[in-house]
Structures are given as C-alpha cells and as structure tokens.
Write a structure and sequence with these properties.
The complex is a heterodimer of chains A (about 280) and B (about 375). Chain A is an all-alpha fold. Chain A is about 80% helix and about 0% strand. In chain A, helix 3 packs antiparallel against helix 9 and helix 5 packs across helix 7. The chains are: A mainly alpha (about 280), B alpha+beta (about 375).
Chain lengths: ~280, ~375
C-alpha cells in the first residue's frame, strides 16, 4: 500500500477516536447538567405537584395565613424603604470616595450576606435586647424591640440591605468615568451631573438591588425567629408561618411556600430583564 | 491660543510631564503626537481642568485658567474654561438621545429654548446627523457616534477644542472617510484645536502644525514640513522615521557647504553656512524619501552640483502599503523608500551592491 494511503487511513482513525472522545465528554457533561438541574428544580416542582391550586381560596381562610401574608408584605416593604434610604447613599459614597480603612468598611457591609441567620439573630439580640449593648438606652426611652414587629423590620434590614449596598456600589463603580468628565466640561453643576448622569446610569442596578433586597426580606426566617420571635399577627411572617404549619396544617404551609417561590421567580425574571434592557434597539 | 509654561505632572512619583512649555497657535489644528504612554491624554486632561498639574501655568486666549499670579492661585473648573473635548471613547451619554446629548451643554448656558433648538439643529446639520436626532448613541456606527460627540462639544461654541484620538473608535473601513469629514468640519469652524494621535500619517493628514511629545516635554513644535524635514532632536528624528547619523563637522568646503565625517569615517557634504559647527560633534538626519537608489554608480552630469554618493549592500527589503523600504548597509544601516515600480526597474535584491545618492541640502544637522 502506498505510504500516503496508509497515512490517510491513520489520520481517519485518529479523527474517529477524537470524535468519539468529544461525544463521550459531551454525554457526561449533559448527564451532570441534567442531574444538577433536576436536583435544583425537583424540590420546587414537588411543592407545586403536592398542592391543588383550586384550594387556594379555601386555604386563605386558615387562621394566621392572611395575617402572616400581611405582616410579611408590611415589614418587607418598610425594611426595603429604609434600606433604600440607607444603602443608596452609602453605596454611592463607597463607590466614589477613597479613604483610609475603606476595605474594612466594605467587608463589614458584606458580612451580613454570609452570616448564618441564627448568628445574625443572636447578634441583634445582644445589641437590642433589654440587656444588650443598646438595650438599656432604649429601655430608658421606654422602647422594647424584641418580640415586636419593629424587630422583624430590623432583622430584615440587617440581613437584606447589604444586597442593595452591593448593587448600588457596582452600579456607580462600573460607570465609564469619561462620561462624568464629559459632563463636568458641559455643566458647572455637580448636582446636575449626579441627577442627570450618575444616578440615571445606576438606576437599573439600584432597582435590581431593591428587588433583591425586598425578596430577601420576604424570605427572612432565622434572624427573625431568634430576634423577634414567632408571635402570630405580631412577628410571625410567612416563612415563620410555614415553619409552624409544617405539621399542624401542611396544605396551608404549602400554599405560603408557593407564594414565596412565585415571588422569588418573579424577582429573578425582573432582575434579568433589567440587566438585558438596552437604550433603544440597534439599527442594522 | 493655548500657552503652557513649566508644566509638570507625576503619577506615583513617576514624572509623566516634566517642565513642559508650549504655545499652540490660534485657529490652527495642532497635532499632539507621541507614542503610547507619553502623556498626551494627561496633558489634554490638565488643559481641560479634569486633572490638576503639580505645577505650571496654563493660558487659554491669554486668560490664565490654571497657575499662580503672585500669591493668588488660579484653577478654573472644566466648565469655566470654555473648551470642547471629544474623548477617545466618544463619551456620549448612553441613556440620552443624540439631540439630548447635544443640548446638555447648551442648557447650562442659560440660553432661550429657541436658541438651544437653533444651535442643536445647526450642529446636527453640520455633522450630518439630523435624521439621527432621536436615536440613542448605541444605534449609531462608530463614526456617527464620534460626529455626534464632536457636535456636542462644538455646540457650546468653545474657545478651543481638544480631540483625543477621535478616530480610534471608528470602524477601520470608515477611518479614512471620517478623518476627511472631521478635517472639513474643523477647517470650516476655524477653531484652535489640539488633535491627539500616536499615528504619524494621521497627524500629517489632519494638522497644520505638529507638536511632538516625548520625555515629558514638547521635543519640537512646528509646521508639518519643519517636523519632517528638520527634526531638532534624535527623539523627533526617530519618531518621524528619519535616518540618524552621528559625526563631526570637520571643515568648510565652500561658502555653502560643510564637510561631515561620520563616526565610521564616511565623508558627507551638507549645505550649511554655520561655520560655528566646525569641530563640533553633530547629529545628521536624512529622510528615506530623499535618498536615490541605483545599481550603477551615478555619473555627475552637472559638475556644479555636489552630491553625496555612497556604495553599500542591500540588507533588507520591506514591501509597505504604497512604498518599499530598502535598508542599505554603507558601514551603518540607512533606510530608503522607493515606489514598487522603481524596485521592479532596479531588479535589486538582498545582498546586491547598490549606490545611494542624496543632495547636501536634504541633510539636516544639529548639535
């Protein structure tokens, strides 16, 4: 057989082996992806499969359900509002100013994000409980925090607002500095530059951070349980009600779970849409 | 007119600009030319007031915008300096329509609505973007975006305009057209312009004058011909791609000519009446375009003309866009540039013996 024919045959063989290796790798990869997706989605799906959606109306009559929903909506709304007032200026400050110890401050701001919720609850107790760090001061003013709705709001702000600080910081940090310089040449007002350039360019990050913060506040469980307690109508939010109803009224618990899952899903969709949105559509 | 005196700026103890002095002619386009990292954008940002220098005075049309008068310190805000600035990345506000980008600066001038509208329309018309007034920047091509940025910077009727590599963000196939359009706009407006570029050809095409920035200061400023024909430092000569030879002025040959002995003992004749050069070490530059290349030793048909003819060997041939660069070793390498037609006629190749000839008047000499 001529040498070039042998060479061609060898090349074909190598190419077949290479193709087979590629296919095997792809198969393994797909198996891993499918198993992982199933692992993440099956628990959520099982909640929906277990619950008869036609029973929503009757389940809403279960004692404690409506109050838990109302309390969750109320506390998470107030917590988000306060978070906006605190986190937006803080995030802007951290994104635009350089100062000694900034890294330490940045780390402290991120700490509640990774803190176990139970630890967050204990930390809040040791700060605001009557015998805590600030407790005696509040006592003198006649204010008792743990066991009241305000404790739920504080717990939610503590665990959820760092999401907003992060988003705001990234929103301002990622802005092209030449836009800011360009505006400074065109106008003498720093306030105008902030309100017409910096803020509008960061607004998507602020909105998506706000939505994330609200969702986190709605889902807050550990810190609230430790710090505020589990009192129906006062501190029992939806996650705490689910915990309570797990054995006493599983169907009502399932319904609350479905509401929380739907909120989480909607939040992710909103954030993704905001990230994708462009100013106008590109012309061909 | 822009006048800069003893300007210095350091970043982390590294001096980027060092005792820089320059005067930019009024209503002319001056290219600020220098390699990447030479401090071109830093200088532009200092003139614009976006960056503070460590020291130095800056005047725009005889008004001090930064510096010290006696004990009084002056540092006008960018907005107060009445400048237009087109950034390398165009810096159009992405969340505003083109029309709103243009009106942004006008709104700070407390003009009437009618005047703002009039000026915006004039600018849109000037840069031929009227039909894109309602478009967002990301809906335009790179060239259109830069034109919009130019319109925005010109709308406020600035005293000077600073252009920082305005062509770099334009798609390669449209660069040439954009340059021509830009030059047309600037010539129409007759405005003092600093045009930053690291591209020699671009500087030559766009500018009336060229200022070469190197080693933290302006190495040379002058009209295009002066910069290319008479570089005043080795830095400028290297940057403009001119041949550099070192030697000593040995004697005056006649009233118009001086003899130079290069460091490898080659004798050259240069046109100069400056007898003070005799005995001094000098640097000689000659443009590759001024050198004639032949395969046969040229015979001097006109005895009244003194020429420099040297024998050498071709060591390198590089085919470029419209010319061919040939390096000839005459004891030291010397570059020549000829047209592709000429190289065909020469039929020369690497290793061939050739003769290079250049007129004494084409030699530039400095100490």
């Amino acid at each position: 057989m001529p040498p070039h024919i042998t060479h061609l045959k060898q090349e074909k063989k190598v190419s077949k082996i290479s193709q087979l290796a590629d296919k095997t790798m792809l198969t393994f990869l797909m198996i891993i992806v499918i198993v992982y997706i199933a692992f993440l989605t099956l628990p959520i799906l099982s909640v929906f499969l277990k619950f008869d959606l036609t029973q929503i109306a009757s389940q809403l009559q279960t004692p404690g359900i409506i109050s838990a929903i109302e309390l969750s909506l109320y506390t998470s709304f107030i917590a988000t509002l306060i978070s906006i007032l605190l986190a937006v200026p803080t995030g802007y400050f951290l994104a635009t100013r350089k100062f000694y110890g900034k890294t330490v401050i940045d780390t402290l701001m991120d700490l509640p994000l990774v803190l176990p919720p139970a630890v967050a609850g204990i930390a809040l107790l040791y700060t605001f409980a009557p015998k805590g760090l600030l407790g005696p001061t509040f006592n003198r003013l006649g204010i008792i925090i743990p066991g009241y709705t305000v404790a739920v709001i504080i717990a939610e702000i503590f665990v959820a607002s760092p999401f907003l600080i992060r988003a705001v910081k990234i929103g301002f940090e990622n802005q092209d500095k030449t836009l800011y310089n360009s505006a400074k040449i065109l106008t003498g007002s720093r306030l105008r530059v902030f309100f017409t350039i910096s803020l509008p360019l960061a607004i998507r990050a602020i909105i998506s951070g706000t939505v994330m913060t609200w969702a986190r506040a709605m889902g807050e469980f550990g810190a609230t349980l430790m710090f505020a307690g589990n009192l129906p109508g006062i501190t029992q939010t939806m996650p705490l009600a689910i915990y309570n109803m797990l054995y006493s009224d599983p169907l009502a618990g399932l319904m609350l779970s479905i509401i929380l899952i739907s909120i989480s899903f909607a939040v992710i969709i909103i954030v993704k849409l905001l990230e994708q949105k462009k100013y106008g559509e590109k012309r061909g | 007119m822009i006048k800069i005196e003893t300007l210095s700026k350091s970043f982390n103890e590294k001096k980027v600009l060092n005792n820089l002095n320059v005067e930019i002619q009024k209503n002319k386009i001056t290219a600020l030319l220098g390699p990447n990292g030479s401090g071109k954008t830093t200088l532009l940002n200092i003139i614009a007031g976006l960056l503070n220098p460590d020291q130095g005075n800056i005047y725009i049309n005889n008004l001090m915008v930064h510096g010290t008068i006696g004990t009084k310190k002056v540092n006008l805000k960018p907005f107060e300096r009445q400048i237009g600035y087109v950034f390398q990345t165009n810096a159009l506000f992405p969340h505003m329509k083109i029309q709103d980008n243009i009106t942004y600066g006008l709104k700070s001038l407390h003009l009437s609505k009618a005047e703002i509208k009039k000026r915006t329309n004039t600018m849109l018309k000037l840069v031929d973007l009227t039909e894109y007034a309602q478009a967002y920047p990301n809906q335009l091509s790179g060239g259109q975006q830069q034109r919009a940025a130019l319109a925005r910077s010109l709308a406020t009727e600035p005293q000077i305009i600073l252009l920082d590599e305005p062509v770099s963000a334009v798609d390669p196939q449209y660069k040439e057209t954009f340059r021509q359009e830009l030059k047309k706009y600037l010539q129409t407006l007759e405005i003092t312009t600093i045009y930053v570029t690291h591209n020699l050809n671009e500087a030559f095409m766009m500018a009336d004058n060229i200022a070469i920035l190197g080693n933290g200061h302006i190495e040379q400023i002058g009209n295009k011909k002066e910069i290319f024909d008479k570089p005043q430092s080795e830095y400028v000569a290297k940057f403009t791609g001119t041949n550099i030879l070192k030697g000593k002025a040995t004697k005056q040959q006649n009233k118009q000519h001086i003899q130079i002995e290069t460091n490898n003992n080659t004798l050259l004749t240069t046109t100069s009446t400056n007898t003070e050069l005799i005995g001094k070490n000098v640097t000689i530059t000659i443009k590759p375009e001024d050198i004639t290349l032949t395969t046969k030793k040229p015979t001097n048909t006109n005895n009244s003309n003194i020429t420099n003819t040297l024998q050498g060997t071709i060591t390198e041939i590089i085919q470029m866009h419209s010319t061919t660069q040939i390096t000839v070793d005459i004891g030291f390498p010397i570059k020549t540039k000829i047209t592709p037609t000429m190289i065909k006629k020469l039929e020369a190749t690497i290793g061939d013996t050739v003769y290079i000839t250049f007129n004494p008047s084409t030699l530039n000499i400095f100490t």
